[in-house]
Amino acid sequence: MGPSYDRAAEDTGNIVALEHVNVQVPDQILATQFYITGLGLTRDPYLMTAVTNMWVNIGRNQFHLPTGEAQVLRGRVGLVLPDLDALARRLGGVRAALAGTQFDFTAHGDHLEVTSPWGNRIRCHGPDPAYGRTTLGMPYVALDVPRGTTDGIVRFYREVLRAPAALDESGGVPTARVAVGMGQVLLFEETDAPQPAYDGHHIQIYVADFSGPHAALLERGLVSEESDQHQYRFVDIVDPADGTVLFQLEHEVRSMTHPLYARNLINRDPARTNMSFAHGREDWRWAELPGA
User: In the chain, which end has fewer C-beta atoms inside a 10 angstrom radius, N or C?
Assistant: First the structure.
């Protein structure tokens, strides 16, 4: 008999990837200053290259930033970035260009708390074994939800989306943890703080069983958009027991046969400049090799 392994640790459940977070931005130039120059991310060179939308690559994940009235996620996005000291220098370098906006950042030991020009909160971590081999990516999205909702949220993702979900109270705040892909989670954290009205921002997920959740959502009257053969959407997260709406967050649900599934995303090394250019060193690898 060979060594024993925790096989359950490799289970991802039905949601195989959280690909992108979508928030509208009023100004593409300011968005470029923040997301590309400041955070050091990479504008997708192939898709959405006009001035009405920008797709921003983060390893195998993205921000989608269509032009429109500002949308603010009720919570925060967690990113892993290669070098927090370099990140702080870049963010300091765009402070003047983003003056008069809500942009700010502060260091908190092992992470940076960053606020976008329109108030979106991003928590930036360095590479850490807690995030596997990821050196560049989006390991979690954390949402602020009302008190008493996390039990129902756990049941919703288990029963409707067929994703592993559990209630975690270890940090003193009841939190629904939902597995949404390899090394990725959605966190729903209870809070007493008043929340603004939902403004239409969304996340996008890929699922292995595409028709099962669709049928469960359709039965409850929750499908908000029949997009095309490969995609549908829903907004309301409900208690499966009685249909009570617990939280609103549009989910763009795609099948694994979607043409964009597992598309290779270009990621640059933000340390490279015209003065430090070296052939073959333009790209950043989002996952480190074991033992490297």
Answer: N
Tell how far CA 231 is from the center of its chain: 18
Residue with tokens 């954390």: 142
State the Cα–Cα distance between residues 282 and 242, nearest whole angstrom: 53
Structural domain including 86 reads 12-255
* Residues in the chain where the model's pLDDT stays below 50: none
**Burial state string for 164-180 with b = 16 or more CB within 10 A and e = fewer than 16:** bbeeeeeeeebbbbbbb
For residues 217 and 234, is the Cβ–Cβ distance under 8 A? Answer: yes
Is the residue at 4 inside a domain?
no
- Are the CB atoms for 24 and 70 separated by under 8 Å? yes
Q: What's the pTM? A: 0.95
Query: Which two structure tokens, joined as six digits, stand for 40?
Result: 């050091």
Q: Establish if 97 belongs to a structural domain.
A: yes
- What pLDDT does 10 receive? 79
